Amino acid sequence: MHLSWFFSNLPFAFLTALAWALLAFATSFVVKRHAIIDVFWGSGFLVVLLESLFVSHLKSAPEMGSLHLSNHAVDHWLHLGLLIAVALWSLRLSIYLALRQRGTAEDTRYVAILANTKGSND
User: Which residues, at least 6 apart from 58, have a Cβ–Cβ distance to it below 8 Å?
Assistant: First the structure.
């Protein structure tokens, strides 16, 4: 990986993570539970990885807009292995946190944060 690619992808990764966090924030109001951010946090790693792989495949494609995989078979298998490892870890973490929260009261950490937040009605 070249550093120029890393720095050119950094704004896209940041915007992807920001969009994912804003979606989590909006979801917390819909479900009226702020601890939902924990579930989004775990899956956020997979979302940013998917964005990075998508951008890297676009940049390595012979023509703009083409979704061809890199010509190097090693790169393909490394990307696939990384995707599988992060997907398994990320989804396991998100599912675990979602199941742990199910049927319980709001997490005490978030209750304490909201209690000390000026203007919060929750």
Answer: 64, 65, 66, 67
Measured CA distances, 8 to 31, 55, 85, 107 (Å): 36, 10, 24, 38
Give per-residue pLDDT as tens, 59-69. 766 544 445 54
The domain segmentation of the chain, as residue ranges, is 3-103
Write the CB contacts of 82 (distance below 8 Å, at least 6 apart in sequence). Answer: 49
Output phi, psi for 55, to 5 deg: -65, -40
- Owner of token pair 């940013």: 48
Question: Whole-model pTM?
Answer: 0.74
C-alpha distance from residue 41 to each of 8, 19, 48, 57, 99 (Å): 24, 12, 11, 25, 15
Which tokens go with 44?
A: 């956020």
Contact assessment for residue 99 and residue 91, using Cβ atoms and an 8 Å cutoff: no
Written as six digits, the tokens of 79 are: 């990307």
Amino acid occupying residue 57: H
